[in-house]
């Protein structure tokens, strides 16, 4: 097979061409290798391959040509040395954390996390002897104060889900490294286009590829990115032995998604900015939060850290839960779904869906009110979305 590498081309070009492995048939689209296993010419070859003394594939749970193409293209996009694909975004988060920890270690994580991510560090890890401290993410002093001698890893997401809180990646990375710990960043809301955590000092970046990378509501997937040493020593063995690997078919779908990622995210971000500006002083909204607006509480940090806004908007609707539900139910174009990053605009009520297991007090700590709704902006025309939002707000 021949491989394509495009290190000197612009990002848009690399999203179409990088990492492609063509078979002897010279196919234009990436080949889909739907196979569980691979054939060896000799028993000696099989032995060498399992000893990593010979290049090639042995079992799709370990590696697969289609999955490898997705990993190589994601590494090129992120500016990482290596990548490991997973079955889902939560598999990526869990594998990235569990793969580098053992009983007796300690994790420091931002309080404002996606519900499942917070469960992983707050409930799952302690079952296996890994302690966790949750901190107010934007306050660097809280990260510093939480460090213990046994602290081995930091975890954060920025912008956070769903309140769009921003955390200083470089500042947290400095604290982590001074403590001899690593920093893992969930970069889903920023996408690889608008934020580069590795450039800011992070050791590991994780994505739910289900979101913007697929971007069309078709399949699940995740990916872990970092240095070759981090992926090989902290991640690969865990994935091989426990099995949360990405299917070749989903990898092929995600490769197709990457080809249009920049077009979609740029359009969605522009529309989100237009809507945020149009709605920011709406009388039926108690608050509107958008990372691209100058009135965001961390606007200066956003200018330093991000290259663009987001496809996401957080709205606090008047009337609490009843007001939020009335607003959502009156929408005609925007659909109710807990997914995001889709070509279709979607809305969800975090307090009763993604973060429903938390007490009202904990949700308040994470910036999640009963009136908060999370908007994921799609590819529809901005004026159509604005009309839909305005008519729904008028009925609150």
Describe this structure in words.
- This protein has 15 helices and 14 strands.
- With 396 residues, it is an alpha/beta fold.
- It has two domains: 9-259, Type I PLP-dependent aspartate aminotransferase-like (Major domain) (Aspartate Aminotransferase, domain 2, 3-Layer(aba) Sandwich); 262-394, Aspartate Aminotransferase, domain 1 (Alpha-Beta Complex).
- Helix 3 (65-78) runs parallel beside helix 10 (248-259) and helix 4 runs parallel beside helix 5 (115-127).
- The chain is globular.
- The protein starts with a strand and ends with a helix.
- The model has no long low-confidence stretch (mean pLDDT 96).
Unreliable parts: none
| Rg from Cα | 21 Å
Name of the level-1 CATH class of the largest domain: Alpha Beta
- How many E strands? 14
The fraction of residues assigned to DSSP E strands is 15-25%
Write the H/E string, N to C.
EHEHHEHEHEHEHEHEEHHHEHEHEEHEH
Q: Can you tell me the overall shape?
A: globular
CATH topology of the largest domain: Aspartate Aminotransferase, domain 2
Q: Could you describe the largest sheet, including whether it forms a barrel? A: 7 strands, mixed
- Strand order in the largest sheet: 3-9-8-7-6-4-5
Tell me what the CATH architecture of the largest domain is. 3-Layer(aba) Sandwich
Structural class: alpha/beta
